Amino acid sequence: MDQPFVLRLIRHAPTRGNQQKRYIGWTDESILPFQAEPDLGLEKVIGSDLKRCRQTAAMLFPNAVYLANRDLRECHFGEWEMKTYEQLKEIQLYRNWIDEPWNIRPPGGESLADMAERVEQGIRKLPNDSEVTLVLHGGPIRYLIAQAMGERFQDQIALHGGCHILTWQSRRAFEERELCTSFSVEPLTVNGTM
After folding, report:
1. Helix/strand/coil (H, E, C) string of the chain?
2. Which of the listed residues 109, 146, 153, 164 has the most CB atoms within 10 Å of its CB?
3. Averaged over 50-56, what is the pLDDT?
4. Are 55 and 31 in contact (CB under 8 A)?
5. What global pTM score does this model have?
């Protein structure tokens, strides 16, 4: 009988840009301080190569080896990096992108379809383990949950301070992109938020 496959998706701790509601795709910003009970038993964590994911993993899993994968980065917002909705809302291309983020790219950036294709490349590089923990960004997490649940990207929420746990009947079921058999979210931080 096949062994279940468990994928844990953890969104990095907030940054100042997150608090200010800025688009911080490939901007390499540090996290803000947070408190969490560290998991000393996890030996390996995989995630984005950006600082905010590395720092979050170091706080949550201090004994784990961190395997960085550039393909798992957030969507690249190009010229809109570090800008807010208020700064962009009068730009017609931005308004079009809000309506069709899968097909429209910010100037110098990626569409959600570009990000999804890149994240899929990163997922194909995961080790052949029965449980994998990833520290990622909101966009890739929302994409992976939507794929696993057969739902829309826009309907997904990727919480700071939450571990989104997806389970499949087998590793093969995950690799063939079958729907997951269970989904839950557990708090990782001391007060349930970051």
Report:
1. CCCCEEEEEEECCCEHHHHCCECCCCCCCCECCCCECCCCCCCEEEECCCHHHHHHHHHHCCCCEEEECHHHCCCCCHHHCCCEHHHHCCCHHHHHHHHCCCCCCCCCCCCHHHHHHHHHHHHCCCCCCCEEEEEECHHHHHHHHHHHHCCCHHHCCCCECEEEEEEECCHHHHHCCCCCCEEEEEECECCCCC
2. 164
3. 97
4. yes
5. 0.94
